[in-house]
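Hey,
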Amino acid sequence: MSGCPISAAAVAWRMPLVNRRRRMLCFENRSGRFMSRRSRKMLRRLRFPSLRRPLGTYQIALYLLIFTVVLLFAVPHVLPWLVQRMVAVLHALLAGLLVVSALREFGGRYNVWRLRRFGRLQWSWIAGLLVFCAMLAWWLSSYAPIQPE
């Protein structure tokens, strides 16, 4: 019991205690022992699961699918120049985010390259940037599904 004052209420309810001398936050579990950093992280995730969880791969894929279906069937095939460019950037951004999310979720083990001059490069960001550029080039070409005026 080094440093933090212990109270029965804090032990029963897992409340944080502040040691005013050392200005540190101490967490105790029900048995009166101090919780490890890993246990505190797990406790925070249990309290606020939606705040800690980013958009999932399937959710981004669903957004991209809905956006593509709306573009193909509900939007006219000729749009003003600025609107067509905004649609192109949004569609390319969704595709790039889908690739980044999928590589992080399913291929997270081999995600980092260590290079001397650049430091650490992540596969997911490189692949997402390549897909973003390819989609943007496709949208700006004459083969785009929606042509500018």
